[in-house]
């Protein structure tokens, strides 16, 4: 709110009427001009949200203040999840980068606190133990790592990431699709660097005929 005479935004409230919509009588601090303004009180409005997490997406809603702006990249908490706004559709069904909350039709968000979902193949001379893991996105796997999963000891010899196969080096779980490892004998003397058992969500055994 600014003074219509001088543009100054400092004022004194002389009178305030109404509940939902307030009628204010203001006096400018700068030039003393008295003017009236109506002010709709900020209220919480329910906005439609589409959350995506891995390959799933679902609809929910969030309450936002009507006098706020929302822009892409904003972090919100929905159902105890931290999410990032990736797209906003306004009331004219146009995708916009930012939008007053009152004009929002739908917002799209992606869940940030999801774990990376990766595969782990442990090769035992053609029989492959295959695990599906959900693990911290920042977990680092390195070729040559010795690990353990459900009592099976293995040594990593490669990865497949979203765009390439790797036979050396390291990668974050968030970019890995599958980790390839060779089964080690329980008598193997290498030190186990980590145990992935707690991250396993599914185990399958495949018999490959080479
Ligand atoms: Zn003024």
Q: Which keywords apply here?
A:
mainly beta, 210 residues, 0% helix, 21 strands, binds zinc ion, six-stranded mixed beta sheet
Describe the structure.
- There is one protein chain.
- This protein is mostly beta strands and 210 residues long.
- It folds into 3 domains: 11-40, no CATH class; 44-111, no CATH class; 116-207.
- It is rod-shaped.
- The strands form 5 sheets. Strands 12, 13, 15, 16, 17, 19, 20 and 21 form an 8-stranded mixed sheet that branches. Strands 4, 5, 7, 8, 9 and 11 form a 6-stranded mixed sheet that branches.
- It has strands spanning 11-17, 21-28, 34-40, 44-53, 56-65, 69-71, 75-78, 81-90, 95-96, 98-100, 104-111, 116-124, 127-135, 140-142, 146-149, 152-161, 165-166, 170-172, 176-184, 194-195, 200-207.
- The model has no long low-confidence stretch (mean pLDDT 89).
- It is 0% helix and 62% strand.
- Bound molecules: zinc ion.
- Zinc ion (ZN) is lined by residues 3, 5-6, 8, 28, 30-31, 33.
**Which percent range describes the beta-strand content?**
over 45%
Ligands bound, unique? zinc ion
Q: In which range does the helix fraction lie?
A: under 10%
- Number of folding domains? 3
Please summarize the sheet with the most strands: 8 strands, mixed
Oligomerization category of the chains in this entry: single chain
C-alpha Rg (nearest Å): 28 Å
Task: Sum up the overall morphology in one term.
Answer: rod-shaped
User: How many beta-strand segments?
Assistant: 21
- Alpha-carbon distance between the two ends: 76 Å
Helical/strand content category:
mainly beta
| Contiguous helical run count | 0
Along the chain, the helix and strand elements come as EEEEEEEEEEEEEEEEEEEEE
- Ranges where pLDDT stays below 50 over 5 or more residues in a row are none
Mean pLDDT: 89
């Amino acid at each position: 709110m600014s003074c219509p005479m001088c543009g100054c935004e400092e004022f004194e409230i002389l009178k305030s009427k109404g509940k939902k919509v307030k009628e204010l009588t203001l006096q400018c601090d700068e030039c003393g001009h008295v003017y009236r303004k109506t002010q709709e009180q900020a209220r919480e409005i329910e906005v439609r949200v589409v959350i995506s997490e891995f390959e799933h997406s679902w609809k929910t809603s969030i309450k936002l203040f009507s006098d706020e702006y929302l822009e892409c990249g904003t972090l919100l908490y929905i159902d105890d999840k931290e999410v990032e706004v990736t797209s906003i559709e306004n009331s004219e069904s146009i995708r916009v980068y930012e939008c007053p909350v009152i004009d929002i039709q739908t917002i799209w968000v992606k869940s940030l606190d999801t774990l990376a979902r990766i595969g782990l193949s442990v090769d035992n001379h053609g029989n492959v133990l295959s695990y599906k893991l959900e693990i911290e996105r920042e977990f680092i796997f390195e070729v040559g790592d010795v690990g353990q999963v459900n009592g099976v000891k293995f040594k990593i010899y490669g990865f497949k990431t979203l765009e390439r196969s790797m036979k050396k080096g390291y990668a974050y779980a968030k970019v890995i699709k599958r980790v390839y490892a060779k089964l080690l004998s329980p008598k193997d003397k290498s030190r186990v660097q980590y145990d992935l058992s707690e991250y396993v969500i599914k185990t399958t055994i495949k018999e490959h005929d080479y």
